[in-house]
């Protein structure tokens, strides 16, 4: 019997060369009775190892390795829950005392820390110092061992004799351990590479920093028996027997301070819920709603989740008090209780949400609530959390940054001695649409031979490196908040950003252990909606909120059905705009389905086309039983949402609600790790026992597989659908306000300013240019003669203009208008850089006449003299030619990324006619199946994960947009044109399906040279 007590995974970044799961699997394969994961000053990988060990029935021990400031090395193992908390506290102390990615601990730190219960192994160096051992044994009485690590480095016999004598001298028992860095010997080459990367030096120069042998892998019991005396192997088993702690013991304790004196969490939540119910239903709470409230409340109180809801409510209350728009999502967020608490504006009485997806009795895990806040004001909420709970009780969860093709090539190439130019050529040959792989054809396209020995070695290492952890970063907003010190639950370390701290676990780790995380997320559309509401109040005198936007407006749905949705939340992508004329949403629930159906899950599960056929009456809607009909009736017999799959498992296969939630979790992970197989027989046999056909059961299981990790919950879709409708309503009735709010909220969405402005003008909005005499920092509304709004572009669009300069300009202008460019420069105290930015944007036209004249005047502007600050130097201005239309358009795009003049392709139309290139408007007049030639500026490339390598490209000319479908083979054969073209010519077949039209590309040609100096950029998405 043997237990490995010293093993590093790749969560000891750039040291360990195996995933935690690989170490566990190999230990099981070799017959070990236990495995300790002891990453350096870290427990970042223990959750993954814990989960793998549970499945394999292997005892798992949590520990950590430390190197003190004076060089002494040791391992600490947690024997129980209390000692685990002390270990985490020590890790936190070391991490918080150093920069991100490092730690610092001294003997004084260990002596001052309470480490009772922690078992300790001393890792002596090549020349052990007895005084170090004496100090170590004194610090850990009756729980200290001297680790003997025999690694076949030529001195094993002498080393064993030396440590045996030292142990006897110090009265320290000896124990075998392996200093494991690899699960198998074959990872040795990768481990050397990681060492070179860590040291930022080529492998050829790493020298003695490389391990002298490949023995730091998990070895067979037979090998260990040949190397170690049996007593040392037996001692590992005795130590493991003292380590009784499991991560399953961790229990989250909610904050208590949200309950006023004299109240309990239950009474406080009840009071807030009832107050909210009276606000939501002033005429009285409907009986069905009252039943839902009582049902939810009973489960909340039974599982003691009141404090969780109070915590979420407090964040929302703070946001509302600051005028920050927010919207909760997640199954719990769409409960009636959350509707009453203002966490969501979606009325859950209109939904059939599976409550056991919200809270599961059997799993006893925290509910699921994410809160989206305005992306520009989320930081206010984050700082509120830190201030309220303190940094010792609140921290952001981590995000694990892993190696992707470009980063792996750059790091590995440098370590293997390639020069910087070669490395960059290789890295630039990789693109996100190639997926997480490094293909030989990409290497050849960069001008390299994959068969070259050096390149072959590089590619082998890079492919091993893909997906390896690189470092921990901070999550976008996942907060963990605890009642007591958070560092006793999970270690806390410094983030890169000042005044930010993160825990060592990411979202998946927290979910696996059932620990509370509240996502404080930023959503650009909420910023745009809040700005829209403000503009409507200021310009129209009308007050709106998400809850008071007029519902079920036919004009809004007619606009959506036409796919007139540029800028509208969620339904502005190519895929969504293609679906809208086919699905033709007529009510709010149709929007809920629209948001969810254009997802990889329903697409890969072959649910989209059957649903559309049933919706149009082309296919009959049938249900194999009344139970199934109750689950699937609202989606015409097709499971589209995660909740429906779970309900089907309950009503058709006999799953308990908790087992159905297990199924959901497996659905979320099976594409990465497998895990659905053991559900298949249970589902099939359960349905068979209840009288369902094998065909129906198999079809349901295929659809579950299709969901994979992409299945979309109905609750999330409902929250998003509310924002879809609100943004569509504003676009429909207030296009100037909507566009103004979008421009002031960028970056967000699919479209650049040029497309947003063009769409607004097509909807009748008058757009006025950036002007130093009129523009504020933000885009604004100006009242036209007829009382309707015109959109004035803001100074924020002028590239290179600092925000401070814009503020100085506006403040100076409020005192009195500028009468010349020199007057502006003097009174606003702008430097040459900011003045040039204004001139380039055409913002000085009313002061100077045109850009050429303005540029000349700017060159003559000098800083004001201290004695005579008001004196202007009048110089003659030569007769300068007025910029041509082409020059103005080029300047507009360079400075503003848009033009209010003619579209650039209008100037090239005659040339394009000569080449037989049709406009997008002319394409609309042609029949299905026509072979066409067209060209346009590339607006976006999108390759969804569900599209099997298909890329959707949108091109734009002076008459509108055209949508292209580029199959993977076409893109690969014409890769340079496909990737690099800014002006793209395409030959292909025109296809129509109802109102949906696109061109199936057969030939691509890069015409970017025709654009000359015009600067354009596409927005590419995955």
Strand content: 5-15%
Helical stretch tally: 44
The strands making up the biggest β-sheet line up spatially as 1-2-3-4-5-6-7
What is the helix fraction of residues, given as a range?
Answer: 40-55%
The protein's oligomeric status is single chain
Low-pLDDT segments, ≥5 res: 353-358
Mean pLDDT, rounded to whole units?
88
Largest sheet: 7 strands, mixed
Query: What separation lies between the terminal Cα atoms?
Result: 50 Å
Broad shape: globular
- SS content category: alpha/beta
Radius of gyration: 33 Å
Number of strands: 23
Outline the structure in words.
The protein is α/β, with parallel strands linked by helices. The chain contains 44 helices and 23 strands. A seven-stranded mixed beta sheet has the order 1-2-3-4-5-6-7. It starts with a strand and ends with a strand. The model is unreliable at 353-358 (pLDDT under 50).
Features:
7-stranded mixed sheet; alpha/beta; 1022 residues
Layout of strands and helices, then pairs:
Layout: E1 3-4, H1 20-30, E2 34-37, H2 46-56, E3 59-67, E4 73-78, H3 81-96, H4 107-112, E5 118-123, H5 130-139, E6 144-148, H6 156-170, E7 174-176, H7 188-199, H8 221-227, H9 230-242, H10 265-280, H11 287-302, H12 306-321, E8 326-329, H13 336-340, H14 355-358, E9 370-374, H15 378-389, E10 394-402, H16 405-415, H17 420-428, H18 440-445, H19 453-465, E11 469-481, E12 492-494, E13 501-506, H20 507-513, E14 518-523, H21 524-540, H22 554-561, H23 574-583, H24 588-597, H25 600-604, H26 608-615, H27 626-632, H28 642-653, H29 657-673, H30 677-689, H31 694-707, H32 714-733, H33 735-743, H34 753-762, E15 767-768, E16 780-783, E17 789-792, H35 803-815, H36 821-828, H37 832-840, H38 845-848, H39 851-860, H40 885-896, H41 904-914, H42 920-923, E18 931-942, E19 951-957, E20 960-966, H43 968-973, H44 975-980, E21 983-993, E22 996-1006, E23 1019-1021
Parallel strand pairs: 1-2, 2-3, 5-6, 6-7, 9-14, 10-13, 15-17, 18-23, 20-22
Antiparallel strand pairs: 3-4, 4-5, 8-9, 10-11, 11-14, 12-13, 16-17, 18-19, 18-21, 19-20, 21-22
């Amino acid at each position: 019997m043997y237990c490995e007590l010293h093993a590093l995974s790749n969560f000891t970044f750039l040291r360990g060369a195996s995933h935690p799961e690989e170490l566990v699997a190999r230990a099981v394969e070799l017959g070990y009775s236990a495995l300790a994961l002891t990453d350096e000053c870290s427990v970042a990988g223990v959750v993954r190892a814990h989960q793998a060990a549970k499945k394999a029935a292997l005892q798992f021990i949590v520990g950590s390795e430390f190197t003190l400031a004076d060089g002494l090395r040791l391992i600490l193992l947690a024997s129980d829950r209390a000692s685990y908390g002390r270990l985490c506290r020590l890790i936190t102390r070391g991490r918080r005392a150093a920069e991100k990615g490092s730690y610092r601990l001294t003997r004084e730190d260990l002596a001052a820390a309470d480490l009772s219960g922690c078992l300790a192994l001393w890792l002596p160096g090549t020349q052990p110092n007895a005084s170090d051992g004496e100090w170590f044994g004194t610090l850990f009485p009756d729980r200290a061992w001297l680790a003997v690590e025999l690694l076949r480095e030529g001195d094993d016999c002498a080393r064993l004799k030396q440590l045996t004598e030292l142990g006897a001298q110090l009265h320290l028992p000896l124990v075998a351990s392996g200093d494991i860095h690899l699960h198998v010997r074959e990872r040795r080459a990768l481990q050397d590479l990681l060492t070179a990367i860590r040291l930022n030096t080529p492998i050829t120069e790493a020298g003695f920093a490389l391990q002298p042998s490949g023995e730091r892998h998990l070895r067979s019991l037979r090998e260990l028996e040949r190397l170690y005396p049996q007593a040392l192997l037996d001692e590992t088993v005795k130590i493991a027997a003292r380590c009784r702690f499991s991560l399953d013991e961790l229990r989250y304790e909610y904050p208590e301070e949200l309950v006023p004196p004299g109240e309990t969490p239950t009474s406080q939540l009840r009071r807030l819920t009832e107050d909210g119910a009276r606000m939501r239903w002033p005429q009285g709470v409907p009986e069905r709603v009252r039943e839902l409230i009582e049902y939810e409340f009973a489960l909340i109180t039974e599982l003691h989740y009141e404090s969780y809801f109070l915590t979420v409510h407090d964040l929302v209350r703070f946001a509302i008090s600051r005028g920050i728009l927010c919207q909760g999502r997640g199954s719990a967020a769409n409960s009636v209780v959350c509707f009453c608490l203002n966490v969501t504006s979606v009325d859950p009485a209109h939904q059939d949400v599976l409550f056991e997806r919200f809270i599961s009795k059997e799993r006893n895990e925290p509910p699921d609530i994410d809160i989206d806040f305005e992306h520009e004001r989320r930081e206010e909420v984050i700082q509120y959390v830190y201030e309220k709970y303190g940094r010792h009780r609140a921290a952001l969860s981590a995000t694990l940054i892993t190696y992707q093709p470009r980063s792996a090539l750059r790091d590995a190439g440098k370590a293997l001695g390639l020069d910087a130019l070669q490395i960059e050529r290789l890295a630039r040959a990789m693109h996100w649409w190639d997926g997480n792989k490094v293909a030989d054809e990409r290497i050849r396209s960069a001008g390299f031979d994959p068969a070259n020995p050096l390149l072959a070695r590089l590619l082998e290492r890079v492919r091993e490196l893909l997906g390896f952890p690189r470092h921990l970063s901070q999550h976008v907003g996942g907060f963990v908040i605890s009642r007591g010190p958070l560092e006793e639950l999970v270690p806390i370390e410094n983030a890169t950003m000042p005044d930010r701290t993160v825990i060592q676990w990411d979202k998946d780790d927290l979910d696996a252990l059932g620990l509370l995380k509240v996502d404080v997320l930023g959503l650009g559309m909420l910023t745009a909606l809040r700005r829209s509401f403000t503009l409507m109040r200021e310009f129209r005198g009308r007050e709106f909120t998400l809850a008071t936007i007029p519902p079920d407006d036919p004009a809004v749905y007619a606009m959506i059905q036409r796919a007139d949705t540029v800028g509208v939340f969620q339904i502005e992508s190519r895929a969504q705009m293609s679906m809208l004329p086919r699905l033709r949403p007529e009510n709010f629930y149709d929007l809920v389905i629209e948001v969810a159906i254009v997802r990889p899950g329903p697409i890969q599960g072959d649910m989209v086309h059957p649903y559309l056929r049933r919706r149009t009456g082309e296919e009959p809607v049938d249900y194999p039983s009344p139970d199934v009909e109750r689950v699937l009736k609202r989606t015409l017999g097709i499971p589209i949402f995660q909740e429906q799959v779970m309900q089907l498992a309950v009503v058709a296969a006999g799953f308990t609600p908790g087992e159905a939630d297990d199924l959901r979790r497996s659905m979320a992970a099976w594409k990465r790790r497998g895990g659905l197989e053991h559900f298949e027989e249970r589902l099939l046999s359960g349905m068979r026992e209840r009288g369902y056909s094998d065909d129906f059961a198999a079809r349901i299981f295929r659809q579950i597989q299709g969901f994979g990790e992409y299945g979309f919950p109905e609750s999330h879709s409902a929250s998003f659908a509310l924002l879809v409708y609100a943004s569509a309503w504003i676009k429909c009735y207030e296009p100037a306000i909507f566009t103004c709010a979008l421009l002031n909220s960028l970056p967000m969405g699919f479209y650049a300013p040029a497309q947003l402005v063009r769409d607004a003008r097509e909807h009748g909005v008058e757009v006025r240019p950036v002007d130093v005499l009129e523009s504020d920092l933000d885009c604004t509304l100006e009242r036209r003669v007829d009382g309707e709004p015109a959109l004035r572009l803001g100074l924020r669009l002028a590239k290179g203009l600092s925000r401070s300069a814009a503020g100085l300009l506006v403040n100076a202008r409020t005192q009195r208008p500028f009468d010349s460019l020199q007057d502006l420069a003097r009174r606003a105290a702008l430097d040459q850089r900011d003045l040039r930015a204004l001139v380039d944007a055409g913002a000085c036209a009313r002061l100077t006449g045109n850009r050429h004249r303005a540029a000349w005047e700017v060159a003559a502007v000098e800083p004001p003299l201290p004695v005579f600050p008001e004196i202007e130097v009048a110089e003659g201005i030569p007769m300068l030619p007025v910029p041509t239309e082409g020059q103005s358009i080029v300047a507009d795009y360079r400075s503003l990324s848009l033009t209010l003049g003619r579209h650039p392709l209008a100037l090239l139309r005659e040339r394009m006619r000569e080449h037989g290139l049709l406009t997008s408007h002319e394409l609309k007049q042609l029949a299905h199946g026509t072979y066409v030639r067209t060209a346009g500026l590339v607006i976006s490339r999108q390759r969804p994960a569900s599209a099997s390598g298909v890329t959707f490209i949108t091109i734009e000319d002076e008459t509108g947009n055209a949508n292209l479908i580029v199959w993977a083979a076409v893109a690969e054969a014409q890769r340079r044109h496909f990737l690099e073209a800014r002006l793209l010519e395409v030959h292909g077949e025109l296809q129509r399906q109802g109102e949906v039209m696109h061109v199936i590309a057969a030939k691509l040609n890069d015409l970017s040279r025709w654009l000359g100096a015009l600067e354009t950029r596409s927005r590419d998405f995955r």
